[in-house]
Design a protein that fits this description.
The complex is a heterodimer of chains A (321) and B (354).
Chain A: E1 3-6, H1 16-20, E2 26-32, E3 38-42, H2 53-57, E4 63-67, E5 70-71, H3 91-104, E6 111-115, H4 123-126, E7 130-133, H5 139-149, E8 154-160, H6 161-167, H7 169-178, E9 183-188, H8 218-221, H9 227-232, E10 238-244, H10 248-266, E11 271-277, H11 281-284, H12 288-302, E12 306-310, E13 314-315
Parallel strand pairs in A: 6-7, 6-8, 8-9, 9-11, 10-11
Antiparallel strand pairs in A: 1-4, 2-3, 4-5, 10-12, 12-13
Chain B: E1 4-7, H1 8-18, E2 23-26, H2 34-45, E3 49-52, H3 56-68, E4 73-77, H4 79-94, E5 100-105, H5 121-125, E6 136-138, H6 143-160, E7 164-169, H7 170-174, E8 176-179, E9 207-208, H8 215-235, E10 239-242, E11 250-253, H9 256-271, E12 276-281, E13 283-285, H10 289-297, E14 301-306, H11 312-320, E15 326-330, H12 339-349
Parallel strand pairs in B: 2-3, 2-4, 4-5, 5-7, 6-7, 11-12, 11-14, 14-15
Antiparallel strand pairs in B: 1-8, 6-13, 10-12
Helix pairs in contact in B: 1-2, 1-6, 3-4, 9-12, 10-11
Classes of the chains: A alpha/beta (321), B alpha/beta (354).
């Protein structure tokens, strides 16, 4: 019988596991853990089907599931350090997916990651690989330097929307256009998180942010930038895809896409870019589960998911995505 | 290797190759385009890589990545482009990475002009970007010296894990002179870099970083950098003292192209019965202040001359003290002083004018 194991002191009480569990196995505690957060209790262990949705959605790697003698385990490409992200922020989920791809391809010992400036500025503390901290927006340039110096290394840049689509737009487009054999993980949560919720280049029309208190006015700030759509127009071959991490199914698709992106680099095929729609419960002023719903209802219609370009097919038609 | 007639910029490019540099990242700007042009053809011949970056900002950050990965790498630019590179240079200095940067200076500020200048002295020697840091700065006066100093620059960058700036001007970059490449570094002889991001196989992971959120840790890091600069000052100061006519009354202090003009002026002055000498800093940071003090102690007049409105002048005055009068003669905007102008200045000082 499957067993849910909660490492309660890693938990930040976001409750995403409780929402994600299709069998209502979990419920939040009324006590707090050592860090001051409520945490999930395994209320109905007999109902667990071993689906591992709770493991998938937990941004803090606080849950594992034991089933048929096998236990899920955090990837080796992540350190054990608890992450600093706000409760319910999906950066932690994306970190895990990237680490799983690195482990899955057996390249951890020849990988170099580039940490950005933004919420994930401390990513170098979490990825258990050689890391290089870039200045704001320049991750693609730093990645270019490393990859050109050492083409045998697997080089990935992990960047947020302000970093990649605003201040780092030139570096992003030109690295893609040169066809640098790097992998870019672009975390789009439609806001500047670290600096306190300012408008991002990807903030939705009408979305309130601390520098657009009345909502993004597209007549003044323009429309949110769709990076994958922009990059697909470049003639250079590339793997360009957009995924989301707002629910377990989306996370599984994101996991496959991120692995595919790294596989292209391992094969030396092309530049690879994965835009991951992510939540910012703090910046959006929503509960973590509400943020997931908001992403689905507001971001996904504007930022459609799917593969936009592959080295095999070139630009993928909308009907085939 | 036999002597070859080469343009300064091309000699700089070849010197980098001979020093074991296999990576160049840069963006076109006059008057240094012959460096990237030369290396775009030359580097592939030795298995190296040339990348024309989308901007100087990107170029400096590519350099940041490549040096982090443990490889000798070069960028070159001219004044406005160097300003754009300052972001990367600050991070490189903070992260203690070895890179070589060549600045073939042109007139400024702003877009300025494309003719030779020395108006980036303060930017080069006082940091240039944000934060407390210094680049080691070498100033060649001939094409041969440019080649020699570029080779030394790579060794010094590795020794101190610090950016080294080769500060030339449009004259050095554009003129042709005979040059000999006195040594050739084999890649396998280069020092191992245990700190580089080369994949963590068989060791703890390496992190290249300049973020220190704990103020006391950041403070300690700043003082650690200062100790490195103090070590440079003790060990790396270089200068040329040129006094072919015996005990001098007038001491010219000049670097780069202006030092050559001063030498011509010094010979002309000897014919007019005025003995002059030249003190030429070769390292601008660390500044050879002690040697300057000694040279200045033996003369009546000190005359600083630069292609700026008086930038090195500040260092000269600092080292000689406020009680020591120091005269200045500068031309800017791409205008270069003639030897006659320097002769006239020296004659005024010596009380023998017109």
């Amino acid at each position: 019988m499957p067993t849910v194991l909660v490492e309660k002191d890693r938990c930040k009480g976001c409750g995403l596991c409780v929402s994600a569990c299709p069998s209502h196995v979990l419920a939040m505690s009324s006590e707090i853990n050592a860090r001051g957060y409520f945490f999930p209790l395994v209320e109905h262990p007999d109902d667990c089907t071993g689906c591992r949705y709770c493991v998938l959605v937990c941004p803090d790697l606080a849950i594992q599931v034991e089933n048929k003698g096998k236990t899920t385990a955090p990837p080796e490409a992540l350190t054990e350090k608890p992450m600093h992200y706000c409760p319910g922020c999906t950066h932690g989920v994306i970190h895990r997916l990237v680490a799983e791809a690195i482990d899955g391809l057996g390249v951890r010992e020849r990988t170099v990651g580039i940490a950005p400036v933004g919420c994930s500025v401390l990513a170098y503390e979490y990825f258990n690989v050689d890391m290089h901290e870039a200045s704001h927006g320049r991750a693609a340039a730093v990645a270019t330097g490393i990859k050109r110096a050492r083409p045998d290394l697997i080089v990935f840049a992990y960047q947020g929307d302000g970093d990649l689509a605003s201040i780092g737009m030139a570096e992003t487009i030109h690295a893609a256009n040169r066809g640098e054999k790097i992998t870019v993980i672009f975390v789009n949560n439609a806001i500047y998180g670290m600096t306190g919720g300012q408008m991002a280049p990807t903030t939705m029309p009408g979305q309130v942010a601390s520098t657009c208190p009345l909502g993004r006015d597209v007549t003044l700030a323009g429309y949110p930038i769709r990076m994958v759509e922009l990059l697909k127009e470049l003639k250079t071959p590339a793997y360009l895809t957009r995924v989301s991490v707002h629910d377990p199914k989306a996370i599984m698709q994101a996991r496959a896409a991120i692995k595919k992106a790294f596989q292209h680099q391992v094969n030396g095929t092309c530049y690879s870019f994965v835009e991951v729609l992510s939540t910012c419960p703090t910046g959006w002023g929503l509960q973590p589960h509400e943020a997931c719903d908001w992403l689905r209802d507001n971001m996904m219609p504007y930022y459609p998911l799917g593969e936009f370009k592959t080295p095999e097919k070139g630009v993928v038609k909308e009907t085939e995505r | 290797m036999a002597k070859k007639l080469m343009k300064g910029c091309e000699a700089i490019g070849e010197a980098a190759v001979q020093a074991g540099c296999r990576l160049f990242f840069g963006y076109p700007i006059t008057p240094q385009n012959e460096i990237p042009e030369y290396l775009s053809a030359r580097l592939p011949q030795v298995g190296g890589t040339f990348v024309q970056a989308e901007s100087e900002v990107a170029a400096s950050n590519m350099l940041y990545g490549a040096s982090g990965a443990g490889c000798r790498c070069l960028t070159s630019s001219s004044s406005p482009g160097i300003s754009l590179m300052m972001e990367g240079v600050s991070y490189i200095a903070a992260s203690e990475l070895p890179v070589v940067i060549v600045n073939i200076m042109r007139g400024g500020p702003g877009l300025g002009g494309i003719l030779p200048s020395q108006s980036d002295y303060l930017q080069a020697t006082k940091g240039g970007g944000h934060g407390d840091y210094r680049c080691l700065v070498l100033a060649p006066s001939t094409v041969q010296e440019a080649a020699d100093l570029v080779m030394d620059a790579f060794d010094l960058a590795d020794k101190y894990r610090n950016p080294v700036l080769v500060l030339g001007d449009g004259l050095i970059g554009q003129m042709m002179e005979p040059v000999e490449f006195k040594r050739s570094t084999r890649l396998e002889d280069l020092p191992a870099k245990s700190w580089a991001t080369t994949g963590c196989k068989g060791r703890e992971r390496n992190i290249i970083n300049s973020l220190y959120l704990d103020p006391e840790v950041l403070e300690a890091h700043n003082w650690k950098l200062v100790r490195k600069y103090e070590e440079m000052a003790r060990t790396e100061c270089r200068h040329e003292f040129w006094s072919p006519h015996g005990d001098a009354d007038v001491l010219f202090v000049a670097y780069g192209s202006v030092a050559r003009i001063a030498k011509t002026a010094i010979d002309a002055l000897a014919e007019k019965g005025v003995k002059a000498a030249l003190f030429r800093p070769i390292t601008l940071f660390p500044f050879p202040g002690d040697a300057l003090e000694k040279a200045a102690a033996r003369v009546k007049h000190v005359l600083v001359s630069e292609l700026s409105t008086g930038q090195m002048l500040e260092d000269v005055r600092f080292h000689l003290g406020k009680h020591r009068p120091v005269s200045f003669y500068g031309r800017v905007g791409g205008v270069i002083m003639t030897p006659d102008e320097l002769v006239a200045e020296a004659l005024k000082l010596a009380g023998k004018a017109g």
